[in-house]
Write a structure and sequence with these properties.
heterodimer, A: 117 residues, mainly beta, 7-stranded mixed β-sheet, 4-stranded antiparallel β-sheet, B: 111 residues, 6-stranded mixed β-sheet, 5-stranded antiparallel β-sheet, 11 strands
Chain lengths: 117, 111
């Protein structure tokens, strides 16, 4: 079964450092997402990406965050200058879209745990 | 924007009994309502979903009901088993580029 893959599974960084989290969405999916989950809390929407541009972002996704699809397969989340409160599990997700059967099903990756010291 | 409220935050039921989790949403334009199960340390996984043109959907021991007028939807798990213990999230969406999750319900199945 197709999977969303994420790397690294765990990253530890010093406050103020830049971090890049990587994702490979399912190959024929059109919509890509980043979500964040602070330990024990809800899954929070950060940003969605469609047709090579951001289509929606939340108030959490401020100027310190950026996303990129540098090639046909990777989808990255960059945090420019990490803060302690950025410590969380970051989930990448993708979905097919466009009204086909199962098009709305959001498939999550296994997550990247970010620890900011 | 959309806001999804979910309750209870924690639910304990005896094995074999039923569990019900309820959610409300704010945006009347929302038309897609998935439920995700997240086991400890793992990714959320879709267990069932419903679209706004349907009032109820069932898949074996799991069912979801939707009341569009009241803007609420519920997850029903019957004949609960130990492996049902997890955190369950409801979510709502009215467009392809955003799915908003509730705060989650931690379900404990008691032996």
């Amino acid at each position: 079964e197709p999977e969303v893959t994420q790397t690294p599974s765990h990253q530890v960084t010093q406050m103020g450092q830049e971090v890049i989290l990587r994702c490979v969405p399912i190959s024929n999916h059109l919509y890509f997402y980043w979500y964040r989950q602070i330990l024990g809390q809800k899954v929070e929407f950060l940003v969605s990406f469609y047709n090579n541009e951001i289509s929606e972002k939340s108030e959490i996704f401020d100027d310190q965050f950026s996303v990129e699809r540098p090639d046909g397969s990777n989808f990255t989340l960059k945090i420019r200058s990490t803060k302690l409160e950025d410590s969380a599990m970051y989930f990448c997700a993708s979905r097919l879209g466009q009204g086909k059967t199962g098009a709305n099903v959001l498939t999550f990756g296994a997550g990247s745990r970010l620890t900011v010291l | 924007g959309e806001n999804v409220e979910q309750h209870p935050s924690t639910l304990s039921v005896q094995e074999g009994d039923s569990a019900v989790i309820k959610c409300t949403y704010s945006d009347s334009a929302s038309n897609y309502f998935p439920w995700y199960k997240q086991e400890l340390g793992k990714r959320p996984q879709l267990i069932i979903d419903i679209r706004s043109n349907v009032g109820e959907k069932k898949d074996q021991r799991i069912a979801v009901t939707l009341n569009k007028t009241a803007k609420h939807f519920s997850l029903h798990i019957t004949e609960t088993q130990p492996e049902d213990s997890a955190v369950y999230f409801c979510a709502a969406s009215n467009r392809d580029d955003k799915i908003i999750f509730g705060k989650g319900t931690r379900l404990h199945i008691l032996p």
